[in-house]
Amino acid sequence: MPACPNCNNQVGEGAVFCDQCGTRMPAPEAATPAPTPGPTGGSVICPACGAGNMPGEAFCDFCGSPLEAPVPTVDEVPEPEVVAEPEAKGAQEAPPPEEKATCQACGAKVLSDEAFCANCGASLAQPPIPPEPVPEAEPEPVLEEVPPEPAPEVAPEPVLEEAPSEPAPEVAPEPVVEEAPPEPVVETPPPPPAPAPPVVPTCPACGAEVVEDDKFCSNCGAVLAAEAVPAPVEAPPAPAPPPPPAGPRLVVAASGAEIPLPAGGEVLIGRQDPVSGIYPDVDLTPHEGEEGGVSRRHARLILEGGNYFVEDLDSTNFTFVNQQKLAPKPRHQINDGDEIRCGRVALVLKT
């Protein structure tokens, strides 16, 4: 009989595992068949070496790799054998066949004295722990509804009759006190001006006081005039001279601002443009020239022979004299007080 390499226990012929420690028994060299690739009728194929194994085995008989978990099979119950009665009296009756136990893991038949399953190596000493029974939940007690207590009846409050209100006492009207008319305001006349101090004659040489009848000063001996000369009185300052009359100018009708006309025969009226290098003599940019449609070179004012002439320089929004539109280039004479309108900016000539 072969011995277990782990515990040196004697095991039966053909046993795959030791029935004492569960160690896999080495297969005899002569009896080891070559692994058969592919499935063999009804056998379990090892996923490692491809050998066929008997159904229900947990490990490969050729390489020891774990196989798929076996499905427990129910062995058919063999029919009981009919034992013939002994002919001779006194012959011993045959003992009943010993029932084999089954492995709880794979369902294979095992001997009653084996500690491990010869098919899957599971321990046979301790039975599997049955699952703990789940305690049944006790039904909750049904609470009977307590009928609500009837509310106590409240006696209605007695209605109190209102006593008739007493008539309010009549109040005598207060006597109307007539206000006294205001006293007239007496204006106090201003006090009369203080009299001027008397003029005392003085000596014109030393300024000492003298008597009116003296002919010579008693202080310095200077000859006095026939009549004493009173002290000189300062004369009021002379009024400021009127400002000189302003020269020729253009007055902005909207704001009243005055733009003096520079000296010269021709004056350019327009709007300043540093990019184009245009700087007119009369710049209407501060007087809403751009908003009023004034061109950069709008019109020309010409002084010739003491008379003023205006000329439109082909402007975009035209030049008007007293509401009359001018044609480009021709001169038009204007006088003092005439209105010159460049676009929408009106100017009045003052000479």
What does this structure look like?
This protein has 351 residues and is mainly β. It has no helices and 15 strands.
What's the layout of helices and strands?
Blueprint: E1 44-45, E2 52-53, E3 101-102, E4 109-110, E5 249-252, E6 258-260, E7 266-270, E8 282-283, E9 297-304, E10 307-312, E11 319-321, E12 324-325, E13 331-334, E14 339-342, E15 345-350
Parallel strand pairs: 7-8
Antiparallel strand pairs: 1-2, 3-4, 5-6, 5-15, 7-9, 9-10, 10-13, 11-12, 11-14, 14-15
Between the first and last Cα atoms, what is the distance in angstroms?
Answer: 154 Å
Q: What is the CATH architecture term of the domain at 249-350?
A: Sandwich
Q: Give the low-pLDDT segments.
A: 30-41, 87-91
- The helix-and-strand class reads mainly beta
Query: Any idea what the shape is?
Result: elongated
- Provide the β-strand percentage band: 15-25%
Determine and state the CATH class of the domain at 249-350. Mainly Beta
User: Helix fraction?
Assistant: under 10%
Order of helices and strands: EEEEEEEEEEEEEEE
Strands of the largest sheet, in order across it? 6-5-15-14-11-12
Report the radius of gyration as a whole number of Å: 75 Å
Describe the main β-sheet briefly. Answer: 6 strands, antiparallel
How many strands in all? Answer: 15
